[in-house]
Design a protein that fits this description.
- The protein is α/β, with parallel strands linked by helices.
- The chain has a single domain, classed as Ribonuclease Z/Hydroxyacylglutathione hydrolase-like (Metallo-beta-lactamase, Chain A, 4-Layer Sandwich).
- It has five helices and twelve strands.
- The strands form two sheets. The chain has a six-stranded mixed β-sheet with strand order 1-2-3-4-5-6. Strands 7-8-9-10-11-12 form a six-stranded mixed β-sheet, with helices on one face.
- Strand 7 and strand 8 form a beta hairpin.
- Helix 4 packs parallel to helix 5.
- It is globular and about 45 Å long.
- The relative contact order is 0.15.
């Protein structure tokens, strides 16, 4: 397995653990094994992305949470460091560069653009990752170039697998990994259809 993929664990839903010189978690939800994260990225305030109980399970004495601005007050007393970002703002956390990017729905009302919720592009040990949060296939994606892109495929609240496959065609990437299925919405069948549509660059990670 490629070293890049070997550093990524899919916990489920929109939660990934990316390991290297730092440990980064995205949108922790339904964490079964307590751990210590250096950085936790929280995309928006919905319960399955800004989960206080799950953030607590990953918090150590040096943990920094990077979140959208409307999550700051919920998290501020839980962790040593909290940074609130809006789309196009950046932070550097212990050498990990993090840029917030837009995340929103186009044809549904669950994640309005006016909320200014986040996806994130971050670079760890020279590898760039795009975690888009809860979003549809939005025009801003055409400007993104990363090594690894995680894309929601479950539909209902986000893009479905077909829309995610179209997004993967325009986002420059090395690996495209489906997420946001098998828990609240979506199934492994959505991930498999996504992989078939995208081709060799698509990788389904087994859920940890």
């Amino acid at each position: 397995m490629d070293d890049i993929l070997g550093n990524i664990r899919y916990i489920g839903h929109a939660t990934f653990k990316i390991s290297g010189s730092k440990v980064v978690y995205t949108d922790p939800y339904q964490i079964k094994k307590p751990d210590k994260a250096d950085i936790i990225l929280v995309s928006h305030s919905h319960f399955d992305h800004c989960s206080i109980d799950d953030i607590k399970k990953l918090t150590g004495e040096n943990t920094t949470v990077v979140c959208n601005k409307d999550c700051v007050d919920k998290i501020d007393d839980l962790v040593p460091h909290v940074i609130g970002l809006e789309p196009y703002q950046e932070a550097n956390v212990t050498g990990v560069n993090i840029r917030a990017v837009p995340a929103y729905n186009l044809n549904k009302d669950f994640h309005p653009k006016s909320n200014r919720w986040n996806g994130y592009i971050f670079t760890l040990d020279g590898v760039s990752y795009y975690h888009p949060g809860d979003t549809d296939f939005i025009p801003e994606m055409k400007e993104i170039s990363v090594d690894v892109v995680f894309l929601p495929v479950g539909g209902t609240y986000t893009m479905n697998w077909e829309e995610a496959a179209r997004a993967a065609k325009v986002i420059k990437h090395r690996y495209a990994i489906p997420m946001h299925y098998g828990s609240v919405v979506g199934s492994i069948a959505d991930a498999e259809k996504f992989k078939e549509a995208v081709g060799e660059s698509a990788v389904i990670l087994s859920q940890d």
